[in-house]
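Here is the promised in-class demo. Please do not try to memorize the tokens; focus on the logic of going from shape to residues.
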């Protein structure tokens, strides 16, 4: 048994995203930034239902992660996958739903529900809402697949996705059979946010907490086969991220920072970085989120300049 969440959204967000080519993840944001979303487990279905009078389910995605983010970080992580062409346009849409004047300089928090493998139905495939749906619902409702409405909804979505997969789309959606968790490959946006949260929004080396200068670094770069997984990431201050990517820094398998002599040789400087040499970095508490030893060994031997 899995849960399905049917969420209410507006036409502009949906219409913008359904026209974007090869979109692999989306941020279904909430204008408020006080409470996070806890209705689904990672891998469960999250569906889009348009505002009345369009009482139809028009698409969805695989729920993967929920958090509260400054709007600037949400934009940096997901860009147009937030359902807007620019940060300014996104701010206008958030302000509309907040129903209050918002200072454009304020980096306020919004709720973020991050979905992988989004799909958008053609209009002739839109699903009517289940009979128990109430016009008073303003955010969304859970349907369980061990109950009749949830089972019917699951099968209807599955049927439409099979139809889409056979239509020659360049990005084929996941195949859905019996109700079960779906584990897609994660995208760059969710990687960045998941790493940021796993490290408690602090640089692993310096403990810096100023979010605009913190970045999620891949240990093994994605371009050479590294995954968008927290265990393949480190949260680093921006300058440390650049040096790590270029091999002037590495992290040993026992989680100590090492600083290459090449900084001094090439730039005749680096005093602040050498002061960090040998420092034990902070890592997440969860075992599955700690930097993978195999990745650190790869970086030590393949990237680090020694």
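The designed amino acids, position by position:
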């Amino acid at each position: 048994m899995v849960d399905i969440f049917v969420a209410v959204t507006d036409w502009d967000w949906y219409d913008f995203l359904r026209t974007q080519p090869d979109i692999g993840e989306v941020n279904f944001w909430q204008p408020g930034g006080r409470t996070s979303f806890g209705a689904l487990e990672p891998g469960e279905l999250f569906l889009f239902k348009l505002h009345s009078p369009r009482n139809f389910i028009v698409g969805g995605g695989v729920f993967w992660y929920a958090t509260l983010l400054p709007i600037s970080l949400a934009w940096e992580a997901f860009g147009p996958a937030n359902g807007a062409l620019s940060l300014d346009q996104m701010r206008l849409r958030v302000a509309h739903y907040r129903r209050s004047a918002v200072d454009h300089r304020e980096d306020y928090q919004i709720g973020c529900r991050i979905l992988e493998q989004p799909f958008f139905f053609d209009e002739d495939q839109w699903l009517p809402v289940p009979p128990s749906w109430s016009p008073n619902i303003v955010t969304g409702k859970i349907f369980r697949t061990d109950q009749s409405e949830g089972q019917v909804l699951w099968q209807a979505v599955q049927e439409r996705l099979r139809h889409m997969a056979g239509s020659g789309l360049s990005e084929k959606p996941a195949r859905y059979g019996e109700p079960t968790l779906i584990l897609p490959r994660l995208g760059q946006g969710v990687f960045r946010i998941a790493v940021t949260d796993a490290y408690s929004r602090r640089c692993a080396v310096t403990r810096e907490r100023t979010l605009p200068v913190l970045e999620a670094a891949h240990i093994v770069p994605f371009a050479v086969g590294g995954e968008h997984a927290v265990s393949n990431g480190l949260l680093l201050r921006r300058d440390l991220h650049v040096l790590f990517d270029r091999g002037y820094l590495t992290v040993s398998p026992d989680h100590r920072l090492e600083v290459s002599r090449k900084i001094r040789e090439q730039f005749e400087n680096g005093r602040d970085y050498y002061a960090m040499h040998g420092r034990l970095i902070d890592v997440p508490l969860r075992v599955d989120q700690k930097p993978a030893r195999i990745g650190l060994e790869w970086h030590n031997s393949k990237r680090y300049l020694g």
